[in-house]
């Protein structure tokens, strides 16, 4: 069992994190999704986030138990250095902390509800999921043993999924901003009529 988790724990954590990012982008669309569909997307987003954190704990625990890394290196990012294997392990530890921060802000969303600075701070903290995902991809592809073909395929699918969801979100946001700037029902401008003098109007 430990061998299975040693080979798949990190991949499962990344796949779950990818699903979390993708469903988070989907759930943010207010124009395409109905309120009920948004609630469903948010539920999937939260469920995959819990799964990602669970697989993350398993991944770290197995790597420490199998002596692939030390507890200090897993808990303190870049405590083993910034280059080579130590740097890659530090990148994974950094990704783990960013994942936890994004998950914690998601769980405490109601505390940041409302407008103004509180909502802006929440968005900034919750957006840590994006650098966490990038760091996790780099860590997974380069740390430890050379990845198997199926692992590389999973990472490729993760990249494609996030890129597609992000592109969809950007296109939707651009269309929405364009429609908001155009006045609704604006009538086309017509040239002002030219005054024509009646015959004999200037006659003495």
Strand residue content: under 5%
- How many angstroms separate the termini? 112 Å
H/E order of the elements?
HHHHHHH
Mean pLDDT: 84
Radius of gyration: 27 Å
Helix content, binned percent: over 70%
Low-confidence segments, given as residue ranges, are 184-189, 194-204
Structural class: mainly alpha
Number of helical segments with 4 or more residues: 7
Number of domains: 1
Largest β-sheet summary: none
Shape by Cα distribution: globular
- Beta strands, count: 0
What can you tell me about this protein's structure?
The chain has one domain. It has 7 helices and no strands. α4 runs antiparallel to α6. It starts with a helix and ends in a 23-residue tail after the last helix. It is mostly helical.
Tell me the layout of helices and strands.
Layout: H1 2-27, H2 35-65, H3 71-75, H4 84-107, H5 117-126, H6 129-142, H7 149-181
Helix pairs in contact: 1-2, 1-6, 1-7, 2-4, 4-6
Give a quick summary of the entry:
Mean pLDDT is 84; it is low at 184-189 and 194-204. This protein has 204 residues and is an all-alpha fold. It has seven helices and no strands.
């Amino acid at each position: 069992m430990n061998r299975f988790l040693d080979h798949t724990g990190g991949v499962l954590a990344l796949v779950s994190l990818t699903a979390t990012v993708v469903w988070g982008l989907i759930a943010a669309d207010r124009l395409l999704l109905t309120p009920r569909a948004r609630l469903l997307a948010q539920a999937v987003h939260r469920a995959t986030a819990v799964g990602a954190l669970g697989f993350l704990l398993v991944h770290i625990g197995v790597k420490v138990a199998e002596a692939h890394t030390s507890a200090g290196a897993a808990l303190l990012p870049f405590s083993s250095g910034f280059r080579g294997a130590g740097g890659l392990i530090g990148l994974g530890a950094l990704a783990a902390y960013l994942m936890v921060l994004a998950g914690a802000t998601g769980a405490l969303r109601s505390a940041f509800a409302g407008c103004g600075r509180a909502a802006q701070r929440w968005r900034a903290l919750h957006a840590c999921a994006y650098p966490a995902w990038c760091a996790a991809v780099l860590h997974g592809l380069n740390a430890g043993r050379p990845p198997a073909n199926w692992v590389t395929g999973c990472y490729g699918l993760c990249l494609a999924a996030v890129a597609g969801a992000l592109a969809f979100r950007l296109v939707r946001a651009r269309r929405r901003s364009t429609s908001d700037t155009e006045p609704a029902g604006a009538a086309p401008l017509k040239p002002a009529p030219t005054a024509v003098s009646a015959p004999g109007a200037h006659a003495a």
